[in-house]
Each structure stands twice: as structure tokens, then as C-alpha cells.
Design a protein that fits this description.
This protein has six helices and no strands. The protein is mainly α and 159 residues long. The protein has a single domain, classed as Helicase, Ruva Protein, domain 3. The relative contact order is 0.14. It holds the Pfam family DUF1465. It comes from Novosphingobium cyanobacteriorum. This is DUF1465 family protein. InterPro entries: AraC-like_sf, DUF1465.
């Protein structure tokens, strides 16, 4: 099965640049938060262990989400550059299907800038996930039962 016409090197490159910029912004923001928490903890002596752990967990979850997007995009860049065959890409270029959701309570405790970056990473992941489904010819969620049946019939007759 050939790549979907909507997935092309320009789209992949644009998303790759966006994902790189987001990865750097996430790293910088959570590093600042970590430094601020350490400074506040040293100055006030308050026990903020739970808050530091929550920040670390959200930083890890957000960074991992962006890195999965980058890996998917790198695999597609390699395919378009002729470094991977379509078979290799289909075998090893999958996006993780059910990435764990953020802890909404911990997310609410983060500053607005960090919350915005977490939401940006979720939106990027959802966009890549839609591209992944379309590229693999999978029906999009939310289709009616009739549309799913039509899709199954079309793929059965095409194969």
C-alpha cells in the first residue's frame, strides 16, 4: 500500500520542525520550574516533595509524548529520503496507540505556561495519530457504523 497522498515530505518536515521547537520549549520550561521549586524549597523550608514529583511526572510524560512524535516523524523522513523501505516503515514506524493521559490534578497545579505546553504536546500527538491512522488506512474514530462497514468492504475488495 502506497503512502496516502495527504502525507508528503513537506508536511512531515513542517511537523518535525514544530515538534523540535516544542521539545526545546518543554525542556526549558520544566527545567525552570524545577530550578524555581528547588530555590523556593531552600528558602522557605516547606516540604514540597509531592509538588516536585508531580512536576517531574508531567515533565517526563510531556517530553515522552513529544519524543514519540519526533520518532514517528524521523521514521517518515527516513522513508522519504530512501533510507527505509515501506515495509520497514510499516513494521517499525508505529506511533504508540494509547499514550497515558496527563494527571489533570497535577496539571492544574502547574503554571499557565507549562499547562499550555502540555496541551500543545497533546494536540501535536493527536495530529500525528490522525496522520498515522490515515496512512495505515485505518478508519478514523467517530465514524458511523455504516461508514465503518463501507471501509471494511472497500479494504476487503481492494486486497
Amino acid at each position: 500500500m502506497a503512502l496516502m497522498p495527504s502525507l508528503n515530505p513537506r508536511i512531515v518536515e513542517a511537523l518535525y520542525g514544530e515538534a523540535l521547537a516544542l521539545a526545546e520549549a518543554v525542556r526549558a520550561c520544566f527545567e525552570r520550574l524545577r530550578q524555581q521549586r528547588m530555590t523556593q524549597h531552600a528558602e522557605t523550608g516547606h516540604d514540597e516533595d509531592l509538588l516536585r514529583v508531580q512536576i517531574s511526572c508531567e515533565a517526563l510524560r510531556t517530553t515522552t509524548r513529544v519524543m514519540h512524535c519526533l520518532a514517528w516523524l524521523l521514521n517518515h523522513r527516513a522513508y522519504f529520503a530512501g533510507e527505509l523501505s515501506e515495509l520497514q516503515l510499516r513494521r517499525h514506524g508505529r506511533l504508540i496507540a494509547n499514550f497515558p493521559a496527563n494527571d489533570r490534578e497535577a496539571l492544574a497545579a502547574l503554571p499557565a505556561e507549562a499547562q499550555a505546553l502540555v496541551h500543545d504536546s497533546e494536540r501535536l500527538y493527536e495530529r500525528i495519530q490522525r496522520l498515522e491512522r490515515a496512512w495505515r488506512g485505518e478508519p478514523q474514530p467517530g465514524l458511523s457504523a455504516i461508514d465503518r462497514l463501507r471501509h471494511r468492504l472497500a479494504t476487503r475488495h481492494a486486497g
